[in-house]
Model the fold of this input.
Amino acid sequence: MHLSSACLLSATLLCRVWVAGRRLALVAPLFATVWAGDAAKRAYDLPAGDAATTLRQLSEASRREILFAADVVRGVPTNPVRGEFTALEAGERLLAGTALAVLQDEKTGALAVRRRAAAAPAANAAGAVRSGDATVQGRVVNPATGAALEGATVQVAGTDRTVLTERDGTFSIPRLAPGAVVLRATYPGLDPGTQTAELKPGANVLPDLKLTSDIYAMEAFAVSAAREGNAAAIVRQENALTITNSVSTDAYGNVAKGDMGSFLQRLPGVVGEYGGSAVDAISVRGLSPEFTTVTMDGTRFAAANPDSRTQIVSGIASGSIESVEVVKTPTADMDAESLGGVVNLRTRSGFDRSGRAIILNAAGAYNETMGRHLDPSGGGRR
Done:
């Protein structure tokens, strides 16, 4: 006999459809079947590993949904499970001796994984208190140039705990188990670096993690500076969520006129519009400059003409800009005013590097015809 889905989900509807004698005969076997499936034993062969991975494997093997937060279980090592068990028994063996516990709802039989309740801190023989998680904080720098490395990848060795450094090179990794850990940092163009630390409960601030390359021993300072800027731009382009071109101003060397208009017209997808001898405005993807927004460190600066949205870039000195980002598909945090795209100018900051840096630009001009009259007929100078 066919039972509608409403009858299966609601005991009240079952009461309305079935007589008392037949309702008990049908509902009881239904729940008996559900709990029989929960209590059925299955063969498991699960390897040890990270809880974020092994819990998914347990869910597939048991054909049961297991509720857990990935950021809570990630990084917790689990035990191997081999043999025939129920889903609950397999979960308990998998998480035995860890900071995680598997629970089963008495009414529905659903499984959920959460962290165990923290035990009351107890003092050992020396009077020390050991409880709680550890947080590691540090900074990744390049000692050859003194630059802080933004976007460097820092990973806890042996786990999938990975973070990216901020603009000043700092990073923070929370919820680590106290004890010895090894941090591994990577950055494009530089040799990977490792750092070993003994973590204690609470915050642990480490010395600077230094990344460099042996090639610096053979290169001049000017070459290393351009190389460093290119690597920083590559990292930002790799980590961008949308179609973005990120270019360091060092990549193009000395711009003849020293203004941003002359620099920006060299970027892919950007066209410059001349106002006399200088590039006053730019356009992205072939649209009018009015549909291109130019920002400085994410903030839109005012247009020179109050009757137009066109922004003048020829008055911005290229030496004050560290890199340029051309965003052709704006993200949700950007203003919806740019059909062409957004050009973001990242200014140089003292927090980008450690130590003192001096940038000196000099230029000169010579005109050999100054003060002389040229004969239009082609007879030469007089």
User: Anything to note?
Assistant: The longest strand covers residues 134-142.
